[in-house]
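User: Hello, can you help with two protein structures?

Assistant: Certainly.
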Amino acid sequence: MDTDHTVFLNWCEAKTQKSVLALFIGSILAGAYIGFASQVFTLVTSNSIVSYGFTQLIGGLVFSVGLIMVVLGKADLFTGNCLLSYPCYSSIQFLSKTLINWVIVFIGNFVGSILLAGLYHMAGLFSAGNGIIAQRAYAIAIYKAGLPFAQAFSRGILCNWLVCLAVFICIYAENNLTKLLVIPVPIMTFVALGYEHNVANMYFIPSGIFAQNYIQVDKLIGWSGVFRNLIPVTLGNIVGGTVFVGLFYWIIQGKKKV
């Protein structure tokens, strides 16, 4: 227990010791990495000839490359960094470091996601497959932007319960090969089941907004739709990570003093 606790604390401490510039750049990279995974998800789910469930399963499997790139690339993802709540349960003094980290990482993730969506738009790739990518991107975005607050919040909780579980396991993984093997299981699960990830949605909804330039749509998605989704999903992600993983494992691992 003591060893597990120490390993987790060292991980949290290392995250909060990064300079603002390093943290921000790492966050931009993480936003882009999740955006790349979102692009592949859009591609493989755009015109499926198999069942909905199998399509979602395959989409979830390919989406897991996003967290693999984040973890192995040593980037900073808001959802994973919700685990910084762990030492806060022992010492309130760590709370300010955690909140500062979350703000910087959230902004950086958003910048990285928008940057990738914009570059994809500038490259004209939404027109791929005779517009099928644009149609799928729009369909994903309009659905997410229209989720009721309670549903988006609940799905955010469920999502980050699994994302933080994946990161939690990686913290104790002996090597990169082990991380590569364990990440896809919880990530595939959350994607296949339709849970909501705020950084993925930082790409998905702006992507749908850009996609409107390539197809005719009955209803336009505005930028307000991004924040209408991100507010409840982010709150849910915080609860899922800080309570169902951070708090519960703090209790399991002995509630040691920081």
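That covers the first. Now for the second protein you mentioned:
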Amino acid sequence: MPPLVLAYHAVSERWEHALSVAPAALARHVGGLVRRGHRPASLDDVLAGRAGRSLHVTFDDAFASTGAGLDALARLGVPATIFACTGYTDGGSVFAVPELALEAAAQPTELATMDWAALRAAVAAGVEIGSHTVSHARLTRLGDGELEVELKDSRRRLEDELGVRCRVLAYPYGEHDARVRRAAALAGYSAAFALSGSEGRRDPFALPRVGVYRGESALRLALKTRPFTLRVGAATLRALGVRSRGR
């Protein structure tokens, strides 16, 4: 059984959006998996593909509210990785990507991102920081030069600001293809994460995660995290009604 990696975004009671999970819900999700025998796993464990019922948690977009999720994980002893977009990190900018523009205008506090000081504090607490590119672009639609900038500049900025190696990337929207995966490798990453399940051999530049969203029932999450479900592709997940809503 491959490592189970969960993908969250914001962690907030107040922002009632699919990307925002309440802190208590996150604690129930992760705590339930631990009680069912999943072993907390470091990013190194995940990258090594160590078999067994292991569990790692990730947060895309580096929302400021991620801190509430980190607190819950610390109590459970589960390691985490945060994927940050460097173009939004200066001053903790509002994450106003086109799909969230209306939400950002209406609730800017809820869509504020972690600034460099917050990311440094997370590193000091043992959290891994990965790249989510510079601007959260749809990588498969970029030209080669633009793609290189999104991947290389974000990694270098994270390393310069945080003083630690940036080893991993999470594809915005979970979107990738052979060209993007090849560019990620050439940009110096050790691995990259997608969102939906994968088929065939293990590809370190298409590591699967299970996206978790607001309102997920215990039954739905149990289905999404079953070993069988983790092995099937996105088309099968959609047929089962388990839809990927990655951002």
